[in-house]
Amino acid sequence: MRKRRVLRWLLIVVAAGVLVLAALFGVAWALTPIPDSTQEDATAQGSVIYYRDGKTVIARQGIDRRNVELAKVPRHVRDAVIAAENRSFYEDSGVSVKGTARALWSTVTGQQLQGGSTITQQLVRNYYSGLSQERSVVRKAKEIMISIKVDQSQSKDWVLEQYLNTIYFGRGANGVQAAAQAYFGKGVDDLDVAQGAYLASVIQQPSRFADPEGADLDAAKARWQSVIRAMTETGALGADEAAAQRFPELKEPKKPFQLKGQAQYMLQQVTDELNRRGYSDEDINGGGLKIVTTFDKKLMEAAERAVKGTLPQATPKKVRTGLAAVAPDTGEVVAFYGGNPDKSQYDNAFSAKVMAGSTFKPYTLAAALDNGLSLSTRVDGNSPMRVAADPDHPIPNDGGRSYGQIDLVSAIRNSVNTAFVDLAQKVGPRKVAATAEAMGIPAEQLEQHVDAASFPLGVASVSAVQNAAGFGTLANAGVHMETHVIKSVTDADGVKDVVKPAASQAIGKGAAADAVYAMRQVVEYGTGTAARLYDRPVAGKTGTTDDSKAVWFNGFTPQLATAVNMFRDDNETVDIPGYGVQFGGQLPAQVWRAFMAEAMDGEPVEQFPEPQGVGHAPGYDQPRDQDRGWRDDTRSREPEQWDEGPTAEPTQPPFTDEEPPADLEPEDDARRSETFDQDFGPPSVEESVPEPTAATDGDGGPRFD
């Protein structure tokens, strides 16, 4: 009787315990839903940035993963993974009872956690948010409940697809597609049986088997052989087929992707533009984007050769040179040289802004032509000139030379300071600023200078990219195209977003044609003769600020506009040992010619439009012999310190009132002459890579491939 009572109470306790456990399990089940978010690293796909050909990689950003549909993973690869990791995958309920019991016991007793997790459990642990990697009974119980729920709510194929795209395979490869590339240099759909079995082997110890040698290689071969054997046991391979398999040859591991040279600057510009276009850093690092840039690899190399091959070895380290090339009809920045990224995070083409000097005069010319004046309009070229707004600071021409009343062609050919001050007064400084802004110079860089008498002489600071784009507006019949460095962005789902730059008519077509005509005279007869391309027409303008603290040459053909600047990072005079103090028509023009000669090689020779004589009938002053070969353009006011960031540039620096040289009277027409080719020789251009070839892209514009 006593034994029966004890037994009865024991049964009651056990039953109560079961009920309590069932109740607790029910509560836990109800309180443990499938997480509604995934771990960021589990689904993130890195983005790849390409040159304009869409094939050559510039940089990779984020996690190396490329998701692939299960249907594109060969059956033998799937079978290998199942044989290695979870043979009962298609039959179990998402958990392994034996494996889970073994793992729980190991956790409770403090022993090393053993294997036993199913593919579903591994996915849950690595895929969903809210599950830590700590070894605890609570975490394991939570994993089990979620795994069961996932198995009930999702198909087995869905689980396997997510698993194959999530699991880490070593060599920095996340997911089976990236792993196939990392280990065998091919897509997962091209893997053979032996290769698929090796990837299944790697899952167990990805770090050890990533590049095995010695004992690790022996262990990797043993693990691979066990996977092949398991595939025969599951029926995935026949005995003869298994016996025919040989350990696969592994591809040499790639070194971690490193940005070199100009690629560091390219990545920064691409990232900045993506951010402006609404792509977050998370999108870039984890969105699996394919980003095709406007940069042409061959022209990028040509830009670097032009700078390094032209500048003498004695060039001081503080002298910085920037180059930017923009396609006028698309606004695409096809090439640039930004300096040495190991020495400065700020590049010389996009970031650095230095005083424009006389390269700003074409904007004044364009404003005048677009507001009713013509190339035959006469302006005062006498020196010095006193302006009512600032009578205490007379504006001189270089050397104090006076030119008398001259037309606008002569004014820009000889870069006459006083003529452009007079011209700006005639057309109105605000209209000059509006025109420059319409052509691509940001208003905030102009506004603080617009009321200064010297505004038309280039006291505002600009970047090489901005100046190239502004001149490109003239080459494009007065239509300004939004400057950009991205051609297209394709997301992980294959949706392609093609960049369509904004276009605006900055000045009239006739005004642009007349301005181009006048600027051609600069290269043919004026201050920019060192930039001539003897097989095609060139229009351009030199620029030299006071004391040569910034020197420029900007020029263009109908197909390509390029700006070259030189300055010092301490804002001192650009003085090259053996070459002396620099002017825009010297080394900057030679760098420009070296680049453009290579960039235009093989491109069709296109002609500029004839001048249209806007305003009234043209009648231009012809260049005189003494106009040819003049040292350089007349210098403008003291340049500001170049701008690397948000620091505001100083306003209205003082004029330097230079006395004319003793051997040159102000009214004397005889001008000093320097022949650059005789003094310095032609620029050195190495032809170490294939020449660019002409082609057209989809919208009919030139393409530099």
Write the layout of secondary structure elements.
Layout: H1 2-30, H2 40-43, E1 47-50, E2 57-61, H3 75-85, H4 97-109, H5 119-127, H6 137-153, H7 156-166, H8 176-184, H9 193-202, H10 206-209, H11 215-233, H12 239-243, H13 263-276, H14 281-286, E3 290-293, H15 297-310, E4 319-326, E5 333-337, E6 354-355, H16 361-370, E7 378-380, E8 385-387, E9 390-395, E10 405-407, H17 408-413, H18 417-427, H19 429-438, E11 461-462, H20 464-475, E12 479-481, E13 486-490, E14 496-498, E15 503-505, H21 509-524, E16 539-544, E17 550-556, E18 561-568, E19 575-576, E20 580-581, H22 587-600, H23 676-680, E21 694-696, E22 702-704
Parallel strand pairs: 1-3
Antiparallel strand pairs: 1-2, 3-13, 4-5, 4-18, 6-11, 7-10, 8-9, 12-15, 13-14, 16-17, 17-18, 19-20, 21-22
Helix pairs in contact: 3-9, 3-11, 5-6, 5-7, 9-11, 15-22, 16-18, 16-19, 16-21
Keywords: Carboxypeptidase, Glycosyltransferase, Hydrolase, Multifunctional enzyme, Protease, Transferase
Protein name: Transglycosylase domain-containing protein
Organism: Nonomuraea ferruginea
